[in-house]
Amino acid sequence: MHELSLHHLTILDAHPLQLVDAAAAAGFEYCGLRLVAPTAADTIVDVANNPALIRELRARLDATGVRLLDIEAIWLSPQTDVESLLPALEAGHMLGAQHVLCVGNDTERGRLRDNFGRLCEAADGFGLSVGLEAITYCAVGTPAEALEVVQASGQANARILIDALQFFRSGATCERIGAIDPALIEYIQICDGPSAAPQSLEARRQEARTSRLLPGDGELPLRELLSKLRSDLPLAVEAPTLELRGLPFDEQARRIHARMQTFLAGPVSWC
Fold this sequence. Notes:
Blueprint: E1 4-6, H1 16-26, E2 30-34, H2 51-64, E3 67-76, H3 86-94, E4 99-104, H4 109-124, E5 129-133, H5 143-153, E6 158-163, H6 164-169, E7 188-190, H7 201-210, H8 222-227, E8 235-237, H9 249-264
Parallel strand pairs: 1-2, 1-8, 2-3, 3-4, 4-5, 5-6, 6-7, 7-8
C-alpha cells in the first residue's frame, strides 16, 4: 500500500511548521520540506541555519507522527558549491529525512556529474540518498539523461526521482519504467495534467509550479505508471493547483488526501 507525502511545493506558502500540521490533519504519513532555494529568485524560510526552528520542527514531527520523506530543492548549477549545502543536509538528517531531491541545471555535463557525485558523497555522510529529477526545462530533461548521470556517478546512494508530470512531458511512456532498475526508484512525485503538453519552456515551467491537477482530474496514465512500480512505493503529492489556492492549509491538505484515496481506489487505465 502506498504511503503518501505532502510535498512542500503543493502548499508552498505554508511555513514549515504549518506544513507539518497540515500533513498531520489530513492523514499524510510524510511531508517533504524545502530547505534549499532552487534559484536566487526563490525565497524560503531558512530552517538550515536556525537551530531553534530545527528543534521545534523535530518536536512537531514527533508529536504528530508525520515523518520527513525528503528535503529539496538542490539545483545543480555552474555555481553549485556542495560544501555550502552541508547545513541543509545536516538539518535534513536531524529532522529524520530519508532523501534529498536535486535537479540537473548545468549544461556542462562533466561538471554536473562531478557535482552530483560530490553531493551524493556529502549526503551519504548524513544517511541520505540523492534523487535526481528530470525536468523538461532544465539541462537534465528526460529520465534517460537522469539515469545516465546517476549510473555514471558510481555512488551507492544515487537514485532517480520520477516526477509524473515531468516524466510524461519529456515524451517518456510507461514502458520506460521497465528499463530502470527498481532499486533506483525509492519514491515518486505524483500529480495529473492534460495529455497535451504546453509548447514553450516558460509555459511548462508555469504549469509545473502553479497549474498541476490532482491525480484523477487530468489525462495522464498515472495508474498504469503505478502498476509498473512497487505497490508500497511512497507517493509524494506535488500538485500546486489554482483550484485550492487561498483555502486554509489544513483544508487544502484534507482535500488532496481525500482525492488521493479516491484515485488509488480506482481501476487501472492503460495508455
